[in-house]
Design goal:
The protein has about 650 residues and is α/β, with parallel strands linked by helices. About 45% of the residues lie in helices and about 15% in strands. Strand 1 (about 5-10), helix 1 and strand 2 (about 30-40) form a beta-alpha-beta unit. The longest helix is centred in the C-terminal third of the chain and has 29 residues, at about 485-510. The radius of gyration is 33 Å and the shape is elongated.
Length: about 650
């Protein structure tokens, strides 16, 4: 007997359920041609899907046609539509808006108007069966058991998603002239064997909070019983759909692809809390008490400021307010008929605790928004990619060696490529990991290019040390005709650091992990004569750091300012008088930077620095007088046009 070949036209095939369904269809010998309707903006997703489905994806059965649910006639040319008449056996409509925060207009365009376009196409093609993927959302806030035979029961529809999914199913039921079948999945999560899912939404939005709770002591917890939900893995939904699509005598019916019994929010929380080693709920308040608490909470929202606080808390948790409306489902879903049909094929919805570990592990490895914060076993710098500027000598070089010694991956930046190569070689000889990126930080194009290169070479960058700097010691009196001194200091000390920070900041915010250490100077804490250009540039960076730290605090990006005391580096060599002044070695100075990387405090300041800052705050007049005397005693260096010798003064005159 000849093999029966089924042909399909699928919308929403690049989505989560759609991709799994296409993969399953390609495994069937009976599957012939599959036409995948894809928006022009999603052609990249279609290409990725084809590559992931090898070798079946390249056997010619899967073909892409460009279309759009929001366009008349789905954007398909009339000639192509005519050529498809009588050639399609199954139209599978998966395309929809699943974003709870989407506007009512967008939900209407895609979920309702788009479904009508698909129904019209199915009617035009003739002889095909329409498979519409609906949702348990059509039941809205129905109170009681919602069966597979039920549809319009005057149920309250609370949000645009519920309303538009209900209207879409109504269109299928009333306007499709051929055979149709409707599938209502529950809350779909990842594959029960691999945990794979394409994005974190729905129940996953609560996972970061559960992970955060894992840091708390494992004490008994009492919580209100919020209600019930219905969670199913994607492989069950796809396997169920695949069987129901091809079984005979099931047309003009709806099928609940749900778990046989509802799962309480307490059960769901405890299952994933077990995976995360977070405190479990040992007792929950009955629904009556929980309902009373809910009524109190609703009244509290009317108090000025309470709703604002609630919104702020939800924002910090990255949970949209709309999620609260669908966190639990009021109806109980009777899926007896569907499960009897699938049981004969060996298909069942597994219990959540049978596969929760796989779901949690996949989320933690691939979707946890804070996963970049986890470091290697050797310590806080293990595996961290740390950019260090001015890394060819002095404090930068010493910091690079110290970071590499602690397991960090060092990305070295300086102007001189040969000196960077020496540092890189030394780190690698000692068993560390380093990469050189020569760059002039005063060149905007060069900075942009080097950041692009670094991000192409590495998965991400967690830390930045803005260490490169230029010091100019010259009195204001000697600088009146040297405005370029101020420009040069700002170009590197402020704008260079700022430019690199701003280039790296977006990917740090996206990864919810980033730390920037800005090497400033103890001089900004008080008054240091003859360093006006240098201190002004460092003070600008300090003030930027304070503002940036406040603005990025909730995004997981932190800042540290190191008020560095005098260190014996190439930067101070031109000033002869510093050769006899006590100063830190580069290695000692690097330890202050390492402290900033490890502890991530707002400031790293020595005891002397704190004393100087306190004096500036408490007795500013005395500090200014002392600074004035220092200005008189220590003239400009010969390089700066001064005598370069200590002057002994009496009575305010030489």
């Amino acid at each position: 007997m000849a093999q029966v070949s089924n042909s399909y036209l699928i919308t929403g095939g690049t989505g989560f359920i759609g991709g799994h369904l296409i993969a399953a269809l390609l495994e069937r010998a009976e599957t012939g041609r599959i036409l995948l309707l894809v928006r022009e903006g999603s052609l990249g997703k279609a290409d990725a899907l084809l590559r992931s489905l090898q070798p079946q994806g390249s056997d010619g059965r899967l073909q892409v046609i460009v279309g759009d649910l929001t366009l008349p006639h789905l954007g398909i040319a009339s000639s192509l539509r005519e050529s498809l008449v009588g050639t399609i056996d199954h139209v599978v409509h998966l395309g929809a808006i699943y974003d709870l925060t989407a506007s009512d207009e967008l939900n209407q365009m895609v979920n309702v108007d788009g479904t009508r376009q698909v129904v019209e196409l199915a009617n035009e093609l003739g002889g095909c069966r329409l498979h519409h993927v609906s949702s348990i959302a059509v039941a809205g806030a129905y109170s009681g058991t919602f069966t597979e035979e039920m549809f319009d029961e005057a149920q309250p529809l609370l949000i645009p998603y519920q309303r538009t999914k209900f209207e879409a199913e109504r269109i299928v039921r009333q306007e499709c002239r051929g055979d149709w079948r409707v599938y209502r999945p529950g809350a779909v999560i990842g594959d029960s064997t691999t945990g794979e899912i394409d994005k974190a939404d729905g129940p996953y939005l609560l996972f970061p909070t559960i992970a955060w709770l894992a840091a708390l002591p494992s004490l008994p917890v009492v919580a209100p019983r919020l209600g019930y939900t219905n969670i199913v893995p994607v492989d069950f939904v796809v396997a169920g759909m695949l069987k129901l699509m091809h079984m005979p005598d099931l047309d003009q019916r709806a099928f609940h692809l749900t778990h046989p019994r509802p799962q309480s929010t307490t059960e769901v929380y405890n299952v994933f809390a077990h995976c995360a080693n977070a405190p479990r709920i040992s007792a929950d308040l009955p629904l009556v008490a929980a309902g009373a608490l809910g009524r109190v909470a609703r009244r509290l929202r009317r108090v000025p400021g309470v709703a604002m606080i609630e919104d702020a808390a939800l924002q910090r948790m990255d949970v949209p307010r709309e999620m609260l409306d669908v966190l639990t489902v009021r109806p109980r879903f009777d899926s007896t008929i569907t499960h009897e049909l699938l049981a004969s094929e060996g298909i069942r919805s597994p219990e959540l605790n049978e596969y929760a570990d796989v779901i949690w592990s996949y989320w933690r490895a691939h979707l946890d928004p804070y996963r970049a914060r986890r470091h290697g076993p050797a310590g806080p710098l293990d595996g961290r990619r740390v950019v260090i500027t001015g890394a060819s000598s002095g404090i930068g070089r010493a910091t690079a060696l110290a970071v590499a010694e602690r397991g960090g991956i060092v990305l070295l930046i300086a102007r001189r490529a040969d000196e960077l190569a020496e540092v890189e070689a030394q780190i690698k000889e000692q068993g560390g990991s380093a990469f050189s990126y020569p760059c002039d930080l005063t060149d905007p194009d060069a900075v942009q290019a080097v950041v692009k290169e670094m991000l192409a070479d590495h998965d991400g960058i967690e830390m930045l040390v803005n260490n490169a700097g230029r010091s100019i010691r010259r009195s204001i009196e000697a600088s009146t005709d040297r405005f370029h001194d101020f420009e040069r200091a700002m170009a590197l000390n402020y704008f260079g650091a700022l430019r690199l920070t701003l280039e790296l900041l977006p990917q740090m915010r996206e990864r919810r992990m980033g730390h920037v250490v800005n090497v400033s100077t103890m001089g900004v804490l008080s008054v240091s004569p003859r360093f006006s250009a240098y201190l002004a540039s460092k003070a600008a960076l300090d003030q930027f750091t304070r503002v940036a730290a406040a603005e990025t605090r909730g995004a997981g990006v932190t800042f540290t300012t190191v008020h560095m005391p005098l260190a014996r580096t190439p930067m101070i060599e031109p000033t002869q008088m510093y050769r006899s002044v006590p100063a830190l070695s580069p290695e000692q100075a690097a330890e202050l930077v390492i402290e900033g990387l490890l502890r991530r405090p707002r400031q790293v300041t020595t005891r002397t620095g704190r004393a100087v800052a306190a004096a500036q705050l408490l007795v500013p007049g005395v500090v200014e007088a002392v600074a004035s005397e220092i200005y008189r005693l220590f003239p400009d260096s010969q390089a700066a046009g001064g005598p370069g010798e200590l002057r002994v003064l009496r009575g305010g005159r030489e």
